[in-house]
Amino acid sequence: MAIAAGAAPAHAIWDGVRWNMSEAEVLRATRGTRAEGWAGRRVKPTRQPATMLKDRVEAERTIGEVRVQAVFWFDPTGRLWSVTEEPAEADGPQATCGALEAALVARHGESDIVTDKGALRHLIWRDERRKTRIHFREDEGGTCAIEYRELRGPLDR
Q1: What is the pLDDT of residue 14?
Q2: Per-residue confidence (pLDDT) for residue 122, from 0 to 100
Q3: What is the mean pLDDT of residues 137-150?
Q4: Is residue 137 pLDDT above 70, yes or no?
Q5: How confident is the model at residue 3 (pLDDT cuts 50, 70, 90)?
Q6: Which residues pair with 150 in a beta bridge?
Q7: CB neighbourhood size of 12 (10 A)
Q8: What's 73-126 look like in SS3?
Q9: Quick check: is 156 in a domain?
Q10: Domain that holds residue 43
């Protein structure tokens, strides 16, 4: 499948950030900082071998009224793979998670998929225009997180 000349790269939700950017490009775009420790995590993409991601950049922003701390994850080739965000506020997590969910609904509309799996609740949006999958998850204790990653095909839910 050919890509039209001049086609814009897919946005990664953050202003100025695109999927597959390098660490240096993400640092400049977010005015973030390098992550301490580089813990890493293993992921199993749809129909691909597992890969190890490294958390290299951290930044902060506001979604609705909620201040979030973001971690930018890079694949072994050094390209942006995903972004995770968690509320920065330590007090009142349940109210914070509710406000964060409401801000996501206001920004992206009703979610495409909602599932309750035991103690976890998942809401997933597919932003086709930005080629981004948005996954909000919340546990019974009121802890929540958002993960953004590039939509790579129709099976990527």
Answers
A1: 77
A2: 94
A3: 91
A4: yes
A5: very low
A6: 132
A7: 25
A8: EECCCCEEEEEEEEECCCCCHHHHHHHHHHHHHHHHCCCCEEEEECCEEEEEEE
A9: no
A10: 23-150
Distance of alpha carbon 107 from alpha carbon 115, whole angstroms: 20
Q: Is residue 157 one of the residues assigned to a domain?
A: no
Q: Give the number of domains in the chain.
A: 1
β-bridge mates for residue 20, sequence order: none
Tell me whether residue 121 is exposed, middle or buried, using C-beta atoms within 10 angstroms of its C-beta: 0 to 12, 13 to 18, 19 or more: middle
Q: Tokens at residue 123, please?
A: 């809401």
Tell me if 7 is assigned to some domain: no
Amino acid code (one letter) for 104: L
Confidence of residue 88 (pLDDT cuts 50, 70, 90): confident
Residue 47 lies in a domain: yes
52-56 contacts, C-beta under 8 A, 24 or more apart: 52/76, 53/81, 53/82, 56/23, 56/26
Q: Tell me, what's the pLDDT at 51?
A: 74
Calpha distance 54→152 (Å, rounded): 20
